[in-house]
Design a protein that fits this description.
Length: 50
């Protein structure tokens, strides 16, 4: 429910790795022309780099 108020960082080994946000916020980000994409666990490209 915290993501209803603001995006929530999910950490792994004390480093931010993922962000959980509402779908409405995600859609608004896409509408602004943001090219980032959300991937499911089995969809991450093999050439993905940080």
């Amino acid at each position: 429910m915290a993501a209803d108020r603001q995006p929530v960082a999910i950490t792994q080994h004390r480093r931010a790795r993922y962000v959980l946000m509402t779908y409405d916020d995600f859609e608004a980000m896409k509408q602004k022309g943001d090219q980032r994409r959300a991937y499911g666990p089995k969809e991450v490209p093999l050439n993905w780099q940080r």
